[in-house]
């Protein structure tokens, strides 16, 4: 169905390009930065603060009353938008986008594990730290491949949910005691959980993939010193499945617009 709103898509990564194509397929008129003066909506990148955009200049080109949508919006970005007469909405705050993004993140992580390990995931003892959307998506997929998955989580309800899925679960406070049983660890918690003490308890040469946002939850210097391989794997939806990630972003943006218009 043809839509009346015009979109300016700002940013050149593969996810942004895919989101623009998805919005065009949904009937919106979509252009790039050159469309800013006429655009009703502006799609900004994720994360906004790390995109190195001249935001003041870009939003200064927008028409007053335009709606900008960005990911991980900061207070400084909101101040710039207000000065430009542009409303700025954080699409990353939408829980459905978090769930959508967890799927390519989990699949991308599995791809990294398959590349880096010399054995199958079938039969492997894998420790997953955290049982939020990413931890859940990853743990159940690893288990489906035959891995013996243990989830370390802080909250009892998270551990209960893991056990409901047929996974083992331990409290985060037991991490150091449990660590010796695992040569593969994935962290999803954006807090310092893989400390030097926990890393020392892991078998030498352990593979650690940290999916948490910067600075991650791993003491990377200690990991190197102890002979582990520790990777900070960021932006996996864009790296591993940009089309899927872009379509999820476009779907979320459309939902935001429909809610504002009262059409859903």
TrEMBL record:
Q: Where is the D-isomer specific 2-hydroxyacid dehydrogenase NAD-binding domain?
A: 117-211
What GO MF annotations does this protein's record show? Answer: NAD binding
What superkingdom heads the lineage? Bacteria
Protein's name in the database: Dipicolinic acid synthetase
């Amino acid at each position: 169905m043809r839509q009346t709103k015009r979109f300016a898509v700002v940013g050149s990564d593969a996810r942004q390009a895919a989101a623009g194509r998805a919005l065009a397929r949904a009937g919106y008129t979509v252009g790039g930065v050159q469309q800013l003066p006429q655009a009703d909506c502006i799609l900004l990148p994720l994360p906004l603060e790390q995109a190195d955009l001249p935001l003041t200049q870009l939003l200064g080109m927008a028409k007053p009353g335009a709606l900008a949508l960005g990911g991980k919006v900061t207070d400084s970005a909101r101040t710039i938008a207000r000065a430009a007469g542009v409303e700025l909405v954080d699409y990353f705050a939408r829980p459905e986008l978090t769930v959508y993004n967890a799927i390519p993140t989990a699949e991308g992580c599995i791809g990294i594990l398959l590349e880096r390990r010399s054995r199958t995931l079938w039969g492997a003892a894998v420790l997953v730290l955290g049982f939020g959307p990413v931890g859940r998506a990853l743990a159940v997929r690893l288990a489906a491949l035959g891995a013996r998955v243990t989830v370390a989580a802080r909250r009892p309800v998270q551990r209960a949910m893991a056990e409901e899925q047929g996974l083992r679960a331990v409290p985060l406070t037991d991490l150091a005691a449990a660590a010796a049983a695992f040569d593969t660890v994935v962290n999803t918690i954006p807090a310092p959980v893989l400390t030097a003490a926990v890393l020392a308890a892991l078998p030498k040469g352990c593979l650690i993939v940290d999916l948490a946002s910067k600075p991650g939850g791993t003491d990377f210097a200690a990991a190197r010193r102890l002979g582990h391989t520790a990777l900070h794997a960021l932006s996996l939806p864009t790296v591993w499945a940009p089309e899927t990630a872009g379509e999820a972003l476009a779907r979320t943006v459309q939902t935001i617009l429909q809610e504002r218009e009262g059409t859903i």
